[in-house]
Specification:
Blueprint lengths: L1 E4 L26 H10 L6 E5 L20 E5 L3 H11 L3 E4 L2 E2 L4 E7 L12 H4 L11 E10 L1 H4 L5 E6 L5 H6 L2 H4 L2 E6 L14 H11 L33
Length: about 250
């Protein structure tokens, strides 16, 4: 199984610096993950992507090139019900999105930030993000809602997938820890991580998540036809995933 981190330049902001200095030249981002996904997609029928944290999903996603495979599909999870409705209206029937928060299966809190892109099950580390340009304002928590999370192994009845994408703003380790069955049959894990924790309680290092993936993937993955979409979801009675935000404490 390949473990492909999102590029570190994706982390918003940079340390505060002397404004008299010229800004650094843009970093050329490697395209190895798109190339790898495209290589697999051209050779596997029924290519299956699981997308955890689908907010902002579009046609240029990291796995988009792999969806040229015959009978390819995306199973996505995004706790914002309105986002899910929009995504389903835009991408059905090949992509299906469910309004569940994937995590450790325990009740928790969803932190609504000024920018939805950084909203998370974890609270931003206010003191730390204040050291970075352009990061404190988007991470300002404007509301907190109770939420019930769901383990990925309980959310789907699949034993394998071709591409697992995780973008859950600092909370990826609990997702991985409760997806051990799926990880044993997963070809590629593409996870957004930070090399310094910007959320309270976040696993501190990329190595923690990479090591977990490598230890969990004990068997090789073989191409196969996936189960029909209608049978892959476990029926679970869940409360509304993200109720309206309450004023933050």
């Amino acid at each position: 199984m390949a473990v492909l981190p999102a590029h570190p330049a994706d982390v918003w902001g940079s340390p505060v610096k002397d404004e008299s200095h010229a800004p650094p030249a843009p970093i050329a981002r490697p395209q190895h993950h798109q190339e790898f996904a495209e290589l697999l997609g051209a050779r596997i029928d029924g290519y299956t992507v699981i997308d955890i944290g689908a907010h902002g999903t579009g046609t240029d996603d990291v796995y988009a090139s792999a969806l040229t495979a015959r009978d390819s599909r995306v199973i996505g999870f995004e706790p914002d019900a309105d986002d899910c409705s929009t995504l389903n209206a835009r991408f059905a029937p090949r992509r299906r999105y469910l309004p569940f928060a994937i995590g450790d299966g325990q009740p928790g809190s969803f932190h609504h930030c000024r920018s939805p892109l950084v909203s998370s099950l974890l609270h931003p580390d206010t003191e730390f993000v204040a050291r970075y340009e352009g990061l404190a304002a988007p991470c300002d928590v404007i509301g907190i809602s109770p939420i019930r999370t769901m383990k990925l192994d309980d959310a789907v009845e699949l034993d394998s997938c071709d591409f697992l994408k995780i973008d859950v703003q600092g909370a990826s380790l609990p997702v991985l820890e409760h997806a051990t069955r799926l990880l044993r049959g997963t070809s590629v894990v593409h996870a957004e991580v930070e090399f310094v924790p910007i959320y309270r309680g976040e696993a501190p290092r990329f190595a923690d998540r990479a090591a977990f993936c490598c230890l969990s993937a004990t068997t090789p993955r073989s191409p196969r036809k996936s189960a029909p979409t209608a049978s892959i979801f476990r029926r679970a009675r869940l409360e509304s995933p993200v109720p309206p935000a309450n004023p933050a404490c």
